[in-house]
From TrEMBL:
<protein>
    <recommendedName>
        <fullName>F-box domain-containing protein</fullName>
    </recommendedName>
</protein>
<feature type="region of interest" description="Disordered">
    <location>
        <begin position="1"/>
        <end position="23"/>
    </location>
</feature>
<dbReference type="InterPro" id="IPR032675">
    <property type="entry name" value="LRR_dom_sf"/>
</dbReference>
């Protein structure tokens, strides 16, 4: 769904009633006096009740005589009715006063001083964010999100003049509402193109069929004034009746004027018989934004598309060949998300699509791909210039048990050579450049590798020679020489963050202070985080001699590093330590050697 565009600033602000020269005070006083009169009238009515009770209720309490019992019951019920009238009168007056005073208080809010277009954009943005916050990634609810009562309540706030002028605000219509409400919204939106949310009814019961037919007829009659249609099935597992009705709705309710389309079948659960719904060909003339959740179109997609989001929780729905068709056939795409489930086994032989060179997509700014097996990624990489996309996220599942260092595909090397920042953790590699390229590789390892504690992936640092910042989130002595060889390449590194076990990290301090030529000679900031893994891996007694000896050595090695840098005239300027940790126990020990010493208790597991 496209973001709300930035509004044009206008000098005209929202209409605010003039309350100067005491007008506001007089309005409040009038309302309070109205409440006082209502209370005085209520008090007089209660006194009248007391008087009537003295005069007419002398028989209350006599139970022996049936006539007296009847008179008593009649009088008491009349008294109850009169008390209810008194309550209603007081309540009506007090609530009216509250509403008026609240309305007047709204007139002093800063938002009401903003230009009308800003207010309209804020309110429209609220609706947009409300829909998106409940509908992100694989956590998408079944079908499409509803506009719930929180949104409907907004109409009750007494900003009638402002809200009635916000035509775009009324263009969001949920077809689960009564159709007379939908019609009232259409009249208020003043010709602004509609944005419809429609979930197919749950079953083929008579009432559901009637609702569906009414909704379809209403949608068909307004489809040429609709720019966005969100269509979904909420019930899981959905029935063949729902599937057929969704396809029927697409055939009859998609017009060439549609600019944004979303079709959502929610999560796939239980029987997968209807996992792949053969959608009819989608509109291809003016469609700019497309979102498909657990479904795919039988026809070609619109070459005019600017954004596309595909979520497929079953590997048979969308394949890497489908993705290639989209990327190669929609040259105007700016944002592309393919969140698919990779098959448990290697895919069938992929099509041999021969190209003289990989396709360049100059308009694409954001690309998210995953979950891909290695063969799927390799096949697409050979045909699309993925490395040139400014904002890219790729998830690769390694199906084989591989302990080789992670290497960037060769064409990414030129981009990595410009990287100024690199984060490498157990499950991801992310680098950024000065010209705002941001590439993230998520590394999905086999389950057995994940649970083997000795397994730590490695990274080939060769392309990253110009780094100024490095976060090494998975340090282990098992690969110490490998990491030191990598760090020795980083002659421009200013900021180093190391995460690992405090029983092992000090090996890095030793090499940073003693190795010739000096490793990371321009280092200015050092951050050290203890991941507490030693508690499970080493099983050391924290009060024992071996543990205390390691602690002393670790502290001495950090001190040696800091002193060696000071003595060489290249002192480290900032030291950040996680707490609790050995090095955070005596901060005064480091302060003479470092300009800034800070601690943090926040730690994100790599």
């Amino acid at each position: 769904m496209p973001p709300v565009s930035s509004p044009r600033i206008m000098s005209k602000s929202a209409p605010v009633p003039e309350l100067s020269n005491g007008g506001g005070r007089h309005a409040v006083i009038d309302r309070l006096e109205s409440v006082a009169r209502a209370l005085e009238h209520a008090l007089q009515s209660v006194r009248d009740l007391i008087s009537d009770t003295f005069e007419e209720a002398e028989n209350i309490g006599y139970w022996e005589n049936s006539c007296r019992r009847g008179d008593s019951m009649s009088f008491l019920r009349q008294t109850t009715d009169r008390l209810l009238d008194i309550k209603d009168s007081i309540e009506s007056s007090v609530l009216a006063a509250i509403a008026d005073v609240r309305e007047q208080s709204n007139q002093y809010t800063e938002i009401l001083r903003l230009p009308e277009e800003i207010i309209f954009a804020l309110l429209s943005g609220y609706v947009e964010s409300h829909l998106q916050s409940r509908d992100t990634g694989r956590q998408v609810e079944y079908g499409v999100a509803h506009l719930d009562k929180k949104w409907i309540k907004l109409r009750k706030v007494h900003w009638n003049v402002v809200l009635r002028g916000a035509a775009k605000l009324w263009s969001y219509i949920d077809l689960s509402w009564p159709l007379d409400v939908a019609n009232s919204y259409v009249s208020l939106c003043q010709g602004v193109p509609l944005r419809l949310l429609w979930n197919i009814p749950v079953s083929n019961w008579d009432v559901e069929v009637s609702n569906y037919e009414n909704q379809k007829e209403w949608t068909s009659s307004h489809i040429h004034s609709t720019e966005e249609l969100q269509l979904g099935i909420q019930h899981i597992p959905y029935s063949s009746w729902q599937r057929d009705k969704l396809v029927d709705a697409l055939r009859e309710c998609c017009s060439p004027d549609l600019q944004s389309l979303r079709i959502s079948l929610g999560h796939i659960g239980g029987d997968l018989e209807y996992a792949v719904v053969p959608l009819p060909a989608l509109p291809t003339v003016n469609l700019l934004h497309l979102r498909l959740h657990n479904c795919w179109s039988s026809g070609p997609l619109s070459p005019s598309l600017r954004t596309i989001e595909i979520i497929a929780l079953d590997p048979q729905i969308v394949t890497v060949e489908h993705i290639f068709q989209v990327l190669s056939g929609c040259p105007l795409l700016k944002s592309c998300v393919f969140d698919i489930s990779a098959a448990d086994s290697l895919p069938l032989p992929l099509s041999d699509i021969s190209l003289s060179s990989p396709i360049h997509l100059p308009n694409l700014r954001h690309l998210q791909l995953g979950d891909f097996s290695e063969p799927m990624f390799d096949w697409l990489y050979e045909r699309i210039q993925l490395e040139l996309v400014p904002d890219m996220q790729i998830t690769i599942l390694f199906l084989r048990e591989s302990f080789e260092p992670f290497k960037l595909p060769s064409r990414f090397g030129a981009v990595a050579s410009r990287a100024n920042s690199l984060d490498f953790s157990r499950e991801s590699v992310r680098y950024t450049t000065d010209d705002h390229l941001d590439h993230l590789f998520s590394l999905g390892m086999p389950l057995r590798s994940r649970i083997e504690t000795h397994f730590l992936p490695k990274l080939n640092f060769t392309p990253f020679t110009r780094l100024r910042r490095l976060c090494l989130g998975i340090y282990s002595n098992a690969h110490h020489s490998f990491w030191m060889e990598g760090l020795s390449l980083l002659r421009e590194l200013h900021d180093l963050e190391i995460r690992g076990s405090q029983t092992e990290i000090s090996e890095v301090f030793l090499d940073l202070s003693e190795t010739t030529p000096l490793i990371c000679p321009t280092l200015q900031k050092l951050s050290v985080f203890d991941d507490k893994m030693w508690k499970w891996l080493d099983e050391m007694d924290e009060t024992g001699a071996a543990f205390q000896s390691k602690k002393v050595v670790a502290q001495e090695r950090l001190e040696t590093l800091l002193k060696s840098r000071v003595n060489q005239g290249i002192a480290i300027q900032s030291l950040k330590l996680s707490t609790p940790s050995w090095w955070a126990e005596d901060l005064d020990r480091w302060k003479p050697l470092v300009a800034i010493v800070e601690t943090t208790s926040l730690y994100k597991f790599p």
